[in-house]
Structures are given as structure tokens and as C-alpha cells.
Amino acid sequence: MKKTLRKSFWGAMILLTLSGSALTHAAGLTPAETKAIAEEGYIFGLPLVMNYAIMNEYAVDKNSNQFKAPFNQIKNESRLFTYKDTTILSPNSDTPYSVSWLDLRAEPVVITVPDVEKGRYYSAQLIDGNLYNNGYIGSRATGNEAGAYAVAGPDWQGETPEGVGKVFHSTTPFMLVIFRTQLFNPEDMPKVEKIQAGYKIQPLSAFQGKPAPAAAPEIDFLPATSAGVKTQFWSYLGAALDYIPQSDKDKGIRARLAMMGVAPGKAFDMNSLSPEQQQAMVEGMKAGDAKINKFVASGATDVNGWQVGSLWGDGDFYAGDWLKRAGGGKAGIYGNNANEAMYLLSRVDAEGKTLDGSLHNYTLTFSADSLPPVKAFWSITMYYSDSQLLVENPINRYLVNSPMLPDMKKNDDGSLTIYIQHDSPGKDKESNWLPAPDGPIYLALRMYWPTPASDAISVLPPGKGTWGPPGIVKVK
User: Fold this and answer.
1) Which end of the chain is more exposed for a tag (fewer CB within 10 A), N or C?
2) Which of 475, 471, 474, 476 is nearest to 367 (CA)?
3) Buried (b) or exposed (e) across 7-28, using 16+ Cβ within 10 A?
4) Which pLDDT score is estimated for 19?
5) Is the dihedral of CA 312, 316, 322, 323 positive or negative?
6) Coil, strand or helix: which one is 259?
């Protein structure tokens, strides 16, 4: 059945991608050459396309049910993500988010943060259109004191402005800022809201009290949605490349994509290709997707059934390794650098068998002295394995985390057991229950501000640290 559905999906891709308005014909490319470029282009472009679609939904399309705020404005989410949030894969439901998309074309933008009390973790992650983490503001990177930081686009040159602690440089004219503010418990939300109210985004001229430069021209963005990433992939990729300056790292693949009509300033049209080339494009996408999935599944170190690795970083971290970058986008777009947060992922138990809430109940037990070693906090989040979205459940609990420890029951020896199952383990154990789907399970163990590799016990460096997670045990 699964094979039939998969073939039907990719077969339908041929029909779904036949619409468009392109100007270029890939004459001279054999089907084999077309497939090779499409495979490489899909791996290169998947995170760019995903990011472009999210930018449209968050900052451009005011009619989108995912719309947050226009460019250079901030949207504070005084709530945690739930199963109703469907734009971001593997969303974090530990920390209320504040989100802002920056338009850096006219001038730099200044991010101001308030004092945050010691013991509460917060961060502002800066991600550009290349899906590079260009820097951090927050507990680990800059401390919990109030401050102001500038973010400049690729064409800006200048000295650090007065009153600004640091200038971050984006490789693209548009950048996403994700603020994460730790919430200790539901009653703590008013304090989080007060901190969020202290996050400010303003143009450099406004920060300095000077006249604003000429505004950047308005852009008629090609409409895009996360749901359309697969069916409109090549059109979205061409549109995304309009706002990503070419670099030495990507000039080769961009030249090859241009041979198929996927390039900045051009509207892609599948009809400009021969039927054989169209089929090769679909086959190339399929091959690229399979390669990404394989990389995500096997590109990390297996520790008791958990995949321990890091797929997120800056341009130097990727160094032109587009498969690693695509793996990061597929595993969970906008993931943090390893020293900011580690993500340990699992779909199998300690014996390597697929986790499935419709077949078994499971337990995960940390001994008294083996809780995840962090300077901030840790959490374990439950997802549907296929969609990587949060699991709807009767108690609206999507994770268990270290702030919940005072309310969780310890075993007689001081160890902590978490019950991973679809149905309640009983009222006496519900404090330790992580509700699972009635089907395959995907788990993410997040460690915020993990202890550094120089410490005696650390998960760093990824896959080689002195600490590892325990395996998940099948109960029945």
C-alpha cells in the first residue's frame, strides 16, 4: 500500500508541475543530465524553498493563517506551539516564540533586548536566506543584560554604530529572527510576556534619531505556501534565488540550474522541457528527497537508538555541503547551533525496532545522576513520525522537560521514568506521561545550552561526548 501511494505521489508530480510561465528551454540536456541536475538542485534548494514559503506565510501574505507581522515588526507569541501549528516541522513547544522577518535592503536594523533575570534562558537566533545561523543574542552568547545589536545586509559597510554592542552581517537582504523565552510553568506566562514586550525591532536611523534613508522598493513576491513546496518547487526556488546573492560556494550549482531555466529573474515553466526531461525532473527530485532522508536517518551517531549529531550552523559550518543543510531543513528547519542547543532524535527503541504507539507502550528512564547535562534546560517532545508535527492528545501535553521535574514522580532509587504511550498509564503515573500517537512515533530530546565539551560530562562534541541518552524500552 505504501509503495502504491508513493508512486502515485511522484507520478502526480508530473501533472502538478506542468503549469507555469517560463522563458527558457533546456535544449541540449539529455534526460540523464536533467535528472542529475534536478537531484542536485533539489538537495541544494529544499531549505531555500522551505524558508521562502515560510517568509511568505509569516511576513508577506496577510491572509495566511500563519501570518505573524510585516517586515521589521515583531510578533510575540504568548503561548506554546500545539498540534494546530502546521508550518514548521518538528516545532519547539518549550519556549514561547517571538518572530520578526527583517528587510535589510535600505539600512541595518537594530534589535534591542531587555534585562532577563538570571536563571531564565532566552535567545535570539539570526537566520538568513541561505539558512545560515549568522549569530546569537541571549543567555549563552551575550548574557542576560539589556543591550542593542545591529543586523546589516550584504551590501552595507560601516562602523559599529554608537550604542550598539555588535553588528551581525547577513548574507541575504532578508533575515529571520527567532526569539525563544523560557517558560517555567503556565503561571509564569505574565513574566514571559513582560520580557517579550521588551524585545524591539527598529531601523538604525530610528534608533539613532536620524532621518531615514530612501525606502527600498516594494516587491511583488511570488506567492508561496509550505503546502506548495513539493508541487511548485522549481518556481519557488527561482523566486527564492532572486533574494540570495550568488557566492563562490553556490555558483556552480546555480549555473547548472540556470541550464534548466531555474534562475533569478525567470519564471520557471515545466512546459519548456520535453516530456522526457519533465520525467527526469521528477525522478531527480525523488532521488534527491531519498538521499536527504537517508542522510537524516544515518548522518548522526547512534547512541542507544537516538541519533546524536548537529545539522545546523553558519556558512563555514556547511562549507558548501548542501546535503547537510538540506538534512537540517528536513529534520527541523531553523535548528540551533550545537553549542546553543542539541537535538537528539529517535524513531526506534533500544533494540532498534520502530517506535509505534498503536502496538506498544514504552518507558525512558534516567538514572539519578544521568539527567541531560545542560546550563539551561532540557525537554523531550513527541511528534507524529510521518508529519513531524505535535501530537493531539487528551491532556494537551506535547513534551516533558526539566522545569516539570518538581511535579514528576521519582523512583525509589532516585531515577526518573517517563511513560511513552498512547493511553494514560493511570492517574498515579500521569505526571510522568508523554502521550504518544496511535501509530509511529518521532521523539526529539532538546538540550538548551548544553554543558561545553571541556566539562567532565557533556553531550558535546556531537556524537563523541561523554554523556549519552538512555534507550527507550518496550513495555508490552
Assistant:
1) N
2) 471
3) eeeeeebeebbeebebebebee
4) 36
5) negative
6) helix
